[in-house]
Structures are given as structure tokens and as C-alpha cells.
Amino acid sequence: xxxxxxxxxxxxxxxxxxxxxxxxxxxxxxxxxxxxxxxxxxxxxxxxxxxxxxxxxxxxxxxxxxxxxxxxxxxxxxxxxxxxxxxxxxxxxxxxxxxxxxxxxxxxxxxxxxxxxxxxxxxxxxxxxxxxxxxxxxxxxxxxxxxxxxxxxxxxxxxxxxxxxxxxxxxxxxxxxxxxxxxxxxxxxxxxxxxxxxxxxxxxxxxxxxxxxxxxxxxxxxxxxxxxxxxxxxxxxxxxxxxxxxxxxxxxxxxxxxxxxxxxxxxxxxxxxxxxxxxxxxxxxxxxxxxxxxxxxxxxxxxxxxxxxxxx
Length: 312
What we know:
InterPro entries: AA-Vitamin_Transporters (IPR050638), EamA_dom (IPR000620), EmrE-like (IPR037185)
Keywords: Membrane, Transmembrane, Transmembrane helix
Mean pLDDT: 81
Membrane topology: Multi-pass membrane protein
Largest sheet: none
Main location: membrane
Number of helices: 13
Shape: globular
Oligomer: single chain
Family: Belongs to the EamA transporter family.
Distance between the termini: 37 Å
């Protein structure tokens, strides 16, 4: 689908300081999305990827609509012209960031390792900055570049368990390419999201995104239900569906959208580097794994890199 040039406009609003409240807004999405990866991997053999993604958004819409109905009606009365003016951008973020990203991630996790999936997902902040510089005329400050490199080094340290020789032994297959396509789409989503006017209520916008996502996924969902694996519904899969329908779907998207609107795509995207940190913590709490020195060093690098990249 060809997209008009208006999709590539940026919104050069000044970024505020990172207050404790804003830091919480920027950190929580990575926590919820780290849980999404763990849950998606855990139920990959129980529910098909399109079915999981489609039902996730159906339930998310069910949970979100009672809170979003009033803002949605208000936006329809006051900002219909804005929605129509930015229709291609809204459609674009709905397809690449809501429909495609999650479906591709769940598909890729069926045939790739968790280590490779986390590594590829950690490229998102780098891709946001690179695409922003190459196609959107964004400026890259030295502190931002240094912060991204430092935090990415921390990500690699956690993934490689402090043994950098493992980097040369990583192999990438079909599942890895699918996950990489997903994270590229998320980088594009973040950049496009920045250009949606702040007058459009973010909760109402998320409802519109989910509705468009469901329209896009519906034919693929019907096909998978007919030709794909039969879903195995039990306590584990139902609990997983409930989690991904509320936390990474509704709360994380609302917080991330608000964070991008407040601090910009690059600064908000840098906080995605926290996902391996939260992944390690969740592994200890839920899977009984042990924290090591490389975890602590990696977390310190990630937090230090975020501080550097977030300097005004």
C-alpha cells in the first residue's frame, strides 16, 4: 500500500525532563512486554500465533472499551477532521505496530530460541535511531549515540551470559528473520506514532488501532482456525491469554504511546533495552533461575545508557 509523504512528517515538540512519574511510564511497557515474550514462548505449542494475537486484541478491546468509550465519542465530535487528515498514518501504525508485530513475534517464537528473540528485539532502539536519522531528518546527539551503545553492550552482556565468545556461535534461521521483521515494524511504528497530533486522545486512538488490527487479522484468523493447529485451551493457555490481553496489550500500549508523545521516539525507544533486565528478573521469580554477576553488570550498563541517551 503506497503511503503519502505526510506519514514521514515529524513533530518537533520540546522534550520534558525525565521525572520519576515519566520514568515509570517509560519503564512499565518494557516490563509488560518482557512478560509477553515469556508467555508467548510458553504457549507456542498450545495456541496458533494468529489465533493468539487475534483473541488477545478481542479481549483487550473488551477490557478497554468501557474506559475509552467517552474519549472516543468526544474525539469523534471534536477531532474527526484530525483522524481523517492522518488516516494513513493511523492505518499504518495499526498494521505494523499492533497487527503485524505481535503476530510475527508469536510466529517467530515457534521456531527460534529465546536468546535469539531477545537479541533481535534489543535492536529496536538502534533501528529507531537509524531510521529516524536516515529517513526523518532527526538529529543524533553524541550522548544519545553513546547511551545506545552502552545500553546495547549491557543487553549483549546479559544475553551472552558475560561470555562474548558466544556471539560468534549464534545462528539465525527462519524464525529469527520473522522476529527481525517484527522489530523493524515496531521501530517504524514508534516513528510514525510521534507524528499523530497530541489533540487525539491516546486511549481513543488505541481503540481505533485495535479495531483496524482486528479487521486486518480476521481473514488470517479464519484461515488458521480452519487449516492450522487446533488450540488447546486449559488453565495455562487461558491464564496466558488473560495476561497478554490486559498488560502488554492495553496498559503497555497506552503508556508507550503517552511516553512517545512526551519525550519523542528515540528517547522512549531507548527504554526497550530494559526488556532483558525485566526478563532476567521474571526468570528468577517465575522460573527459579539464578542471577549472576553478568546480570548486574549488564543492568548497570543498560541503566547508564538510558541516562546518557535521555539527557536534554
